[in-house]
Amino acid sequence: MSSKKEVLRLEDICKSFPAVQALDQVNMSISAGEVRGLVGENGAGKSTLIKIVTGAYDKDSGKIIFEGNEIVRNSPIVSKKLGIYAVYQDVMIAPDLSVAENFFLGNQPKRGLIIDWGKMYEESEEFLRDMELEIDVKRNIRELSVAEGRMVTIAKCLWQEPKLVIFDEPTAVLTQNETQILFRIIRDLKERGIAVIYISHNLEEVFDVCDTVTVLKDGKLVGTYTVPELESVDKLIPLMVGRPIEEMYYKKEVEIGPELLRVENLSGKRFRNIEINVRAGEILGVFGLVGSGRTEIARAIYGADRFDEGKIVVNGQEILVKRPKDSLSSGLGYLPEDRKNQGIFPQQDVEFNINVINLDKVMRAGIIDYSKAYQQAQDYVDKLSIKVGSVRQRLSELSGGNQQKVVIARWLCKNPNILIFDEPTTGIDVGTKVEIYKLFGEILDQGKGIILISSYLPELISLSDRIIVISNGEVAGEVEKEDFSEEYLLRLAMKNILNKEKVQEAV
Amino acid sequence: MAKKGGRRAFAERNLLIIIIIMAIFLSIATKGNFYSWENISNLLRQSSINGVVAIGMTLIIITGGIDLSVGSIVGLSGMTYAILTSNRGEIQMSSGLAILISLGIAALIGLANGVAVHDGKVPPFIATLGMMTLVRGLVMYVSSGRMITGIPMGFRQFSVATFLNIPALAWIWIILAIFMSFVLKYTMFGRNLYAIGSNKEAARLSGINIRLNMYSFYTVAALFSGIAGLMLATRMAAGVPTGGQGYELDAIASVVIGGASLSGGVGTVFGTALGALIIQTMRNGGNLLGVDPFIMQIIIGALIILAVFFDQYLKGRREG
Questions:
Q1: Contact (CB, 8 A) for B239 and B233
Q2: Rounded to an integer, what distance in angstroms lies between the CA atom of residue B280 and that of residue B274?
Q3: How much is the mean pLDDT over chain A?
Q4: Contact between B38 and B211 (Cβ < 8 Å)
Q5: What is the DSSP annotation of A102-158?
Q6: Beta-bridge mates of residue B166
């Protein structure tokens, strides 16, 4: 039976990053034996909140009270000592050690100086048997399936006798059966008076396993509700999205012209039968949850990754895309989501970063004319009002927003017919966002097309002419402007995650 | 607009200052002997072979890799030339053709390095370590571990030839260094090198053909070692089976002292040339001052560590 003893209380937690207020006075309290769902859109602040509880981030202000005592200086080590454990999306165990070794890591039973292997195997085996998991404890983690590895991670957490366990999207790689085992484990934790925080995009699951649900939105607490009080998923979604659209979105209306790009029946590793088309002067929005396959689709179209089947047609002609060079020369451009790892050349200067795909304009007989190269870079620095000391400044010395502008400048200079923007405004301050939206208008004015991938619905709704929703690797729907609503789009995005019956009722 | 600046120039300026201070110190300490033209031209000649190897090494280190096979390639190229041309051997090929073949073989070995690193995904350290051993074994095998003498007279005399009072060997180094400096700054080849070295994935997404470029970097690096091997052969007037042994270390040291970063993306041929000069000036000065060569070795070792330490320290400061 669950007692009412409070395990964790958060008081007025605030956290801001250079450009965004990630958490704004969030309050929350969890009792022993309570299973709490934590839901919200991408960027609502769920991960930040968890990282503050586990000590991975420092809070700006507010209090963390654990079992009645305030944690003044939190850190991953402190929180673990107190009994707070998080099971993250990525497996965080040593892949080349056996299951048993992972359990006892840093704390191996010894007989004198020698590790007592027998005891290690025996105890870990027994523990897994109690959890009804049939995994050979002598095997290395690397030899296990992804789901098995996941279950071992969870088991390792429980092995440490936690007081609060945080699950962050735990079922993403689990099979139906394993999900059921996980739910049973969670109920077992509840019985034992352990508090659980459960984060998932799968709201059905949240309803299945949680007692209470806390909703976050834009870093603010919307509220905490009991599951019976919410009744159904349909009542939860409006709480997650209901916000007036801010007046910051500038959308230039341009007459829509002929089709520029058509993708037919594209299938690859994480997506199937994708059909997309973009017309001149149009912004095609692409919406999907994290892991839905939206980035993979964009990368396949651009030739960054291989795809299995399908056709890419540019200006009525099929193009063969094997590598980015092919799509570049066919007039496609792609601004990657991961600026740091895929976008910038940090040790090189602004000129280098802008001109990397635009050297043809400043070369004569195979030799770069630097006066032209610097001028070309300077022109775009001025045009986008990028804040730099000079075009010879190294990119690593610029702020994230200015780095992003440099990458955008690179593409504006290249001036492709179709530009794919993958999350172009993440981690960027509001002022820069508005400037980027204005640049979209200029691109459209020239009769070009834009594919805008974003998980931020207000942005997508205000800027797009049409929105394609990707759910679990498939097109869940194509939504025309008059039907745009956050609720509807989010429901489509969850279409292949929710069970089918519910979708029929909901949509 | 053309404001001279940037960190690279900063590193080079520092190196120049170091060299000047060393030169002044040495000329005082040796009562002007250091400044004798004979000594300076000797210094340049001694630096030139390592200098040429280090140009190739610069390319590889800018990619974020390392090439340990350069010393063995130096040995192989010199040996190939000697075997092909020796008047005591059976082939007695013309000098020009032998040079082409020696360089061609060196280039092929570089290409193999490139294939192993890019397609085989073998870490550059391991791939070139293996190649170092393999190629040295090859040199030993084809020469039966013996020196091969009897190479053409004209080729031998090249090592003592001078032009404008500067040794011909030094000219080769100077011309190659200027040429590669230009290539790295002003051509697509150079820009691709820095792009791939700074961020390979971003480079790929920018339409740069990574495979082709990686092949060419390793091939060109080996080609420079091949040239250095021929330079060594003319100095030694023979193919020496142990020729070039340990050269990879001097080359890496020159590149690192020259301001390149082992994590890639940063480095210049000019900086490397200064690095090579610093190492040789220290050896030369130590000689003139009668410093124990073993002590010199200790000092040079410490200098390498200091150079990298300084690089990391600056990087740490930049990244806060």
A1: yes
A2: 10
A3: 84
A4: no
A5: HHHTT---EETTEE-HHHHHHHHHHHHHHTT----TTSBGGGS-HHHHHHHHHHHHH
A6: B163
Between A and B, how many CB-CB pairs are < 8 A? 89
Per-residue pLDDT at A454: 86
Write the CA distances from B319 to A348, A362, B313, integer angstroms: 15, 32, 10
Q: Residue B168: how many CA atoms within 13 Å on its side-chain side?
A: 14
What does the angle CA A101 – CA A105 – CA A106 come to, to the nearest 5 degrees?
Answer: 145
Residue A157 placed within a domain: yes
Nearest-Cα distance to chain B for A320, in Å, is 14
Of A356, A367, A375, the CB nearest to B195: A356
Length of chain B: 320
Q: Which of A342, A390, A394 sits opposite B205 (nearest CB)?
A: A342
SS3 A313: strand
The H or E element containing residue B175 is helix B168-186
Both A371 and A451 in one domain: the answer is no
DSSP bridge pairs for A421: A335, A452
Cα–Cα distance between A304 and A323 in angstroms, integer? 6
- CB contact (8 A) between residue B318 and residue A371: no
- In angstroms, the separation between the Cα of residue B202 and the nearest Cα of chain A is 4
A352 contacts B201? CB cut-off 8 A: no
- Report the interhelical angle of B210-236 vs B37-62 (nearest 10°): 160
User: Do A134 and A207 belong to one domain?
Assistant: yes
Mark whether A116 and A46 lie in a shared domain.
yes
For B85-88, which contacts have Cβ atoms below 8 Å and span 24 or more sequence positions? B85/B151, B85/B152, B85/B155, B86/B148, B86/B149, B86/B150, B86/B151, B86/B239, B87/B150, B87/B151, B87/B152, B88/B148, B88/B149, B88/B150
Name B129's Cβ contacts closer than 8 Å, sequence gap at least 6: B68, B69
* A223-237, A250-264, B137-151: which is most confident: B137-151
- Of A398, A415, A432, which residue is a domain's last? A415
Assigned domain for A440 exists? yes
**Two tokens at B24?**
């002044």
Q: Is the pLDDT of residue A491 over 80?
A: yes
Measured CA to CA, the distance from residue A384 to residue A436 in angstroms comes to: 9
- Of A179-183, A348-352, B164-168, minimum mean pLDDT range: A179-183
**Domain's final residue, options A415, A449, A474:** A415
How many Å apart are CA B136 and CA B145, to the nearest integer?
10
Comparing CA positions, the residue from A39, A25, A26, A30 lying closest to residue A4 is A30
Contact list in B for residue A371 (CB cut-off 8 A) is 1-2
Task: For residue B64, give the nearest of B198, B189, B191 by alpha carbon.
Answer: B198
The confidence band for A503, taking pLDDT boundaries of 50, 70 and 90, is: very low
More confident residue, A139 or B191: B191
Cβ atoms within 10 Å of A255's Cβ, excluding its own: 9
Interatomic CA distance for residues A258 and A209, integer angstroms: 50
DSSP letter string, A363-430 = EETTEE-HHHHHHHHHHHHHHTT---S-TTSBGGGS-HHHHHHHHHHHHHHH--SEEEEESTTTT--H
Closest CA to A376 of A351, A395, A408: A351
Residue reference for tokens 């041309």: B85
Nearest beta carbon to residue B199 from set A304, A345, A392: A345
B201 with A366: Cβ contact below 8 A: no
Give all domains of chain B, ordered by start, each with its CATH number.
39-280+295-304 (1.10.3470)
State the nearest Cα–Cα gap between B301 and chain A, in angstroms: 27
Angle at A91 between CA A85 and CA A94, to 5 degrees: 95
